[in-house]
Design brief:
heterodimer, A: seven-stranded mixed sheet, four-stranded antiparallel sheet, 54% strand, B: mainly beta, six-stranded mixed sheet, five-stranded antiparallel sheet
Chain lengths: 111, 115
């Protein structure tokens, strides 16, 4: 069964550094998302992406965040200058019909 | 601002018995609800959904009940099996669910099914 894949599974970075989280959505899906979950808290929506542009974003998704689909398969989330509070599990998802299919997540630790 | 609330962070149930996971929501614009299950080191996986035109949806051992007047939904698992042990997330979406509409998730309930 096709699945959403995310790399890396763990990323450790220093505060202020840039990180890029990578995702390969399911190939025939059209809608892509990033969510995150800070330890012990709810899964939070960051951004949705359709037709090569952002369709919706949350308050969390400020100027430090950006998304790209550079080559038609990869879907990346970039955090320009990481903060301690960016430490979380980041989930990529793609959608067909009403269902979201999630990747296994990237655990980001900002030190 | 918790629009979707799962007030029980954890639940333990004996194998073979019924597991009932609860979810409350505050936004009356929500009209499509989903349950996701998450194992450690994996992403959430879709389990079952219900739209607001129904009050019950059943899929095998899993049944979701929706009480719109109380803004409450519940997931019933009967009979519970050890493999059901996971974190269960309730999620909701506003009217006219489309690809651009983000799901709003609760904090999750960790279910432990004891053999």
């Amino acid at each position: 069964e096709p699945e959403v894949t995310q790399t890396p599974s763990h990323q450790v970075t220093q505060m202020g550094q840039e990180v890029i989280l990578r995702c390969v959505p399911i190939s025939n899906h059209l809608y892509f998302y990033w969510y995150r979950q800070i330890l012990g808290q709810k899964v939070e929506f960051l951004v949705s992406f359709y037709n090569n542009e952002i369709s919706e974003k949350s308050e969390i998704f400020d100027d430090q965040f950006s998304v790209e689909r550079p080559d038609g398969s990869n879907f990346t989330l970039k955090i320009r200058s990481t903060k301690l509070e960016d430490s979380a599990m980041y989930f990529c998802a793609s959608r067909k019909n009403e269902k979201l299919f999630f990747g296994s997540g990237t655990q980001l630790s900002v030190l | 601002d918790q629009q979707v609330k799962q007030n029980s962070p954890s639940l333990s149930v004996q194998e073979g018995r019924i597991s009932i996971l609860n979810c409350d929501y505050t936004n009356s614009m929500f009209d499509y609800f989903l349950w996701y299950k998450k194992y450690p080191a994996e992403g959430p996986t879709f389990l079952i959904s219900i739209s607001s035109i129904k009050d019950k949806n059943e899929d095998g051992r899993f049944t979701v009940f929706l009480n719109k007047s109380a803004k409450h939904l519940s997931l019933h698992i009967v009979p519970s099996q050890p493999g059901d042990s996971a974190v269960y997330f309730c999620a909701a979406s506003p009217k006219s669910y489309s690809g651009n509409t983000p799901l709003v998730f609760g904090k999750g309930t960790r279910l432990s099914v004891i053999a």
